[in-house]
């Protein structure tokens, strides 16, 4: 065999020539990869797989977070394998196994039922986990999400100050969307909102505080809110000044607002304070006088925090145990500065 711009094969030594040809081919391919920058180490890095267990894409807030994760994965050249649990515990368990089959190196977990979190972790072999806004023990190594108590106090303070200025703290009903299954978070968000309000307007009488459990009635949280809001209005026909708190998303606040309007009680709803400030609520913040604001949770920023944290876990690097959002109340006065209108 000779190589001088051309390859000549001696058929008498064909077996030996085949071996030499194979070696030459491997050498050419290997050199080509190295010259092109595609070393085996680079290839492995580009193929890093991160699993993402979504809480429920039907939620506009969750969907915005998911979009931010996808954008960050594209930017960082990471393969993001997704599964939507649709707010169902059984589906979350299925998702854990589905994600495990993709052989990820770390998981971003956002399932909402703490009673199954250990089984969900087990389903994906207790891989190191970045958890979003929910505990998800025992595999959670990093918490990314809201500073729930601070956000609750901000919301309550804003609602209290409005109520004191406009109604002299006189009202008939305080509607509060809650999520009792997440006891710790609910205490901080819903409880913090109530506490912040009470610091301005005094204690809310239990008879006036009407809790709306968004999980009561099935997996359609928005329908649960609409139904229970309607029932409360029916049971309180004389309520002329109604306040409302939606500590989990603007979508919840929209469902509540629409239920009040559909019942013909729109003028009785005096003020709504939300948590989230996601895109679905921006028009309401700008245009509905009853929406006095929404505490910003900035779902569009989650991806840039959570995915790098997951990559660090996957590659054995140290990460802070908590990475919390900095909140502010988004109002009619500042929304166009925070979220400029699209031209």
Characterization of the model:
This protein has 2 domains: 47-145 and 300-324, Response regulator (Rossmann fold, 3-Layer(aba) Sandwich); 148-296, Response regulator (Rossmann fold, 3-Layer(aba) Sandwich), CATH 3.40.50.2300. The protein has a 6-stranded parallel beta sheet with strand order 4-3-5-6-7-13, sandwiched between helices. Strands 9-8-10-11-12-14 form a 6-stranded mixed beta sheet, sandwiched between helices. With 343 residues, it is α/β, with parallel strands linked by helices. It has 12 helices and 14 strands. Helix 9 links the parallel strand 10 and strand 11.
Write down how many β-strands occur, each being a DSSP E stretch of 2 or more residues: 14
Spatial gap, N to C terminus: 69 Å
- By CATH reckoning, the class of the largest domain would read Alpha Beta
Give a short account of the largest sheet: 6 strands, parallel
Mind sketching the topology for me?
Blueprint: E1 2-3, E2 7-8, H1 14-35, H2 40-46, E3 49-54, H3 60-76, E4 79-84, H4 89-101, E5 106-109, H5 117-123, E6 129-132, E7 140-145, H6 148-167, E8 173-178, H7 183-201, E9 209-213, H8 221-235, E10 242-246, H9 250-262, E11 269-276, H10 282-287, E12 291-296, H11 302-314, E13 322-324, E14 329-330, H12 335-338
Parallel strand pairs: 3-4, 3-5, 5-6, 6-7, 7-13, 8-9, 8-10, 10-11, 11-12
Antiparallel strand pairs: 1-2, 12-14
Helix pairs in contact: 3-11, 4-5, 6-7, 8-9
